[in-house]
Amino acid sequence: MEIQAAVVHEKAGNIALEKVELDEPKENEVLVKIVGTGICHTDLGVQHQHIQTPLPIVLGHEGAGIVEKVGPGVTEFEPGDHVVISFSYCGKCRSCLEGHPAACENLGKLNFGGCLLDGTTRLKKDGKEVATLFGQSSLATYAVSHVNNLVKVDKDVDLTILGPLACGIQTGAGTVLNKLKPAFGSSIAVFGCGGVGLSAVMAANLTPCLNIIAVDINDDRLALAKELGATHTINSKKTDVVQEIYSITGGGVDYAVESTGVPEVVLQSIHSLKSRGVVAVVGVGGKTSIHIHDDLIPPNRTVVGVVEGDAIPKLFIPKLIDFYKKGKFPFDKMIKTYSFKNINDAINDMNAGKTIKPVITFSE
Predict the structure, then answer these.
(1) pLDDT along the chain (364 residues), means of 10
(2) Backbone torsions φ then ψ of 141, nearest 5 degrees
(3) How far apart are CA 347 and CA 358, in angstroms?
(4) Can you tell me the distance from the alpha carbon of 95 to that of 100, in angstroms, rounded to the nearest whole number?
(5) Residue ranges of the Enoyl reductase (ER) domain (predicted)?
């Protein structure tokens, strides 16, 4: 079938809205009519090839839509189901079998290798193959994805805004709830108040943390962090972050989430920890040098990397939606919608800090 898709043909090339051919779903695959797709910095990383993938490629990895058709062997989905499309994983390696699909041994290939689970793509243009991102390429009017990617969601929630739960929101919230698991009366600092960081703030507000400290350089984002549950905010352009955190907590935080990937901020997050503190690094950026002896060993600090919030999407995303429906996880406050034709406006606004989480809609 012919679809409209956001295609990148070359490194740092423009995102072009083009017609491409989408093949029928194969065994254990599903055709989804896309309703809304979040834009994440990972998409831009692929566009500029900071994250290397085959080219050309159709972008999009935070999709949400309605099942249009199922391929052979599909039993858990049927036409009309509402779904969120998350990351791809093999389901057979040790990490997957132990309940950690975000640590899948094939994660890189399946999400950035340009193919679906069977090693091929469903996308073509002028008879030539076009690569798939995250096994979905959901910045398009339709997508074909393996059942592993798909999460069935309730139909009483606005499907348009659910796409970002698939990656950015899942990453921030899952890092707090699945990996750090803050203890009663503990303190946490979140570095960076983009979509991932603010999701971490909202998740921390669901835990028994006493202090939730949000750090950013944008006062508007810090104000939103306060609205979403932060007990304290710090503008790192105006204040010595580590000193202020020590002042608030009386010696450092128990936990930190570093979502910026900026090397100096990574170091700040480590230095903000108290003895035996843990920082989860989820931001991707430049190289960072850590002095193992000075920064980690004497204070017994721990630095962990976390991918996709160490989540099982089929279990975790419905829980986030339940908390959203109860008013306890208001992620919609981060979202602004844009029509597909205005995708470049959405990206420009995100890069300028005007929009935290843009979502592309396909209703036209």
Answers:
(1) 97 95 98 98 94 97 99 98 99 98 98 96 96 98 98 98 98 99 98 98 98 98 98 98 98 98 93 97 78 83 96 99 98 98 96 96 82
(2) -70, -25
(3) 8
(4) 5
(5) 13-360
- Give this prediction's pTM: 0.96
Paired strand residues for 357: 335
Instruction: Write a three-state SS string for 27-41.
Output: CCEEEEEEEEEECCH
Strand partners, 129: 124
In the DSSP assignment, the letter for residue 333 is G
Structure tokens at 167: 């990656």
Distance CA 276, CA 356 (A): 33
Domains by residue range for the chain, with CATH: 2-166+330-361 (3.90.180.10), 172-306 (3.40.50.720)
Rounded Cα–Cα distance for residues 357 and 79 (Å): 29
Distance CA 166, CA 226 (A): 24
Residue with tokens 């009483």: 156
Length of the chain: 364
